[in-house]
Write a structure and sequence with these properties.
- The chain is α/β, with parallel strands linked by helices and 291 residues long.
- The protein has three domains: 1-79 and 154-216, P-loop containing nucleotide triphosphate hydrolases (Rossmann fold), CATH 3.40.50.300; 87-152, no CATH class; 223-289.
- Helix content is 30%, strand content 30%.
- It has nine helices and 13 strands.
- The chain has helices spanning 44-51, 95-106, 112-122, 138-150, 168-181, 195-198, 218-226, 236-242, 281-290; strands at 6-16, 19-30, 32-37, 59-64, 67-68, 80-83, 156-160, 186-191, 201-208, 211-216, 229-234, 248-255, 258-264.
- The chain has a six-stranded mixed β-sheet, sandwiched between helices. The protein has a four-stranded antiparallel β-sheet with strand order 2-1-4-5, with helices on one face. A three-stranded antiparallel β-sheet has the order 11-13-12.
- Helix 7 (218-226) crosses helix 9.
- The radius of gyration is 22 Å and the shape is globular.
- The model has no long low-confidence stretch (mean pLDDT 90).
- Belongs to the ABC transporter superfamily.
- Residues 7-234 form the ABC transporter domain.
- This is ABC transporter domain-containing protein.
- One of its GO terms (molecular function) is ATP hydrolysis activity.
């Protein structure tokens, strides 16, 4: 018997007028990180807005540990933490005031000071927590954003573009935060940065053309795509010709007039090409977007 938390998205559809954004989406995720991937306009943010109660689907339901999130009134805000891509707050409010407000909003039944102090220490906010948010750097704003999302230890965390606007060092640290907080909660992140999900995600869901193009683990995603990806070392003239004939997913210059390319296998193979023993998750993602 499987233990832990369970989020079940069942036959969810959403449209803006005649424009279909999500078409009968279904998947289930549990504790750990589930990465929601897709190009711009694929419906990732729309799905997150549905999960947080901001949008109402035309069809389907969302179940969190047996509770229908879309029908429960009021929305169970104490069970869900949310960090949007654009986490903009009033610049004259302090970080502590924001966390205090979220604590009260969620009606958390714990000691307020101890709860706030815990997330402040966890996300290394002590030096700035009493300063106005308008004085925060991008990295500190993102830390504050995740702190307000996890306060009260919600069952479900929804995070849109977790490392947007962060420098490489801050991105690495933020990924570690996500890995830690996802141990006892369902953490659903929406991103187009493959590096954000490659190391820590237990599950990957790819949205394409309003529906799910893939749902599985990193290993399954690579295994399903690797047999359809070919590698070839060639010269510039041949490279230019192949660009017209195949879908190239990676190009690397090896030296003077020598290139290594990876491309999606067509019905007719390219002479001299071969299947690699390993490919990157980014290669696999591009394959699913183009197959």
């Amino acid at each position: 018997m499987e233990m832990g938390n369970r989020l079940s998205i069942e036959n969810v559809s959403f449209s803006y007028g005649k424009n279909t954004v999500l078409d009968n989406i279904s998947f289930t995720c549990r504790d750990g990180i589930t990465a929601l991937l897709g190009n711009n306009g694929a419906g990732k943010t729309t799905l997150m807005n549905i999960l947080t109660g901001l949008n109402k689907p035309s069809h389907g339901r969302v179940m969190l540990n047996g509770i229908d999130l879309l029908k429960t009134k009021p929305y169970p805000i104490d069970q869900v933490g949310y960090l949007p891509q654009n986490f903009d707050m009033y610049g004259n409010v302090t970080g502590y005031d924001l966390l205090s407000y979220v604590f009260d909003l969620k009606k958390i039944k714990k000691n307020k000071k101890e709860t706030i102090d815990e997330v402040v220490e966890r996300f290394h906010l002590t030096s700035v927590i009493n300063k106005r948010i308008g004085k925060y750097s991008g990295g500190y704003k993102r830390r504050l954003g995740i702190a307000q999302a996890v306060i009260g230890k919600p069952t479900l965390l929804i995070i849109d573009e977790p490392t947007a606007g962060l420098d490489p060092e801050e991105r690495t640290q933020f990924r570690k935060y996500l890995s830690e907080i996802s141990k006892d909660s369902i953490t659903l992140i929406s991103t187009h940065i493959i590096e954000d999900v490659e190391l820590y995600s237990q599950q990957i869901v790819i949205l394409k053309d309003h529906s799910i193009a893939f749902n599985g683990s990193v290993a399954e995603m690579i295994a399903e795509s690797i047999t359809n990806i070919r590698t070839l070392e060639t010269d510039f003239a041949t490279l230019m010709d192949l660009r017209k004939k195949v879908t190239i997913i990676e190009e690397k210059r090896l030296g003077t007039d020598r290139y290594r390319i990876r491309f999606i296998k067509d019905k007719q193979d390219v002479a001299g090409s071969y299947q690699e023993k390993e490919i990157s998750l980014e290669n696999a993602y591009i394959y699913f977007q183009n197959r």
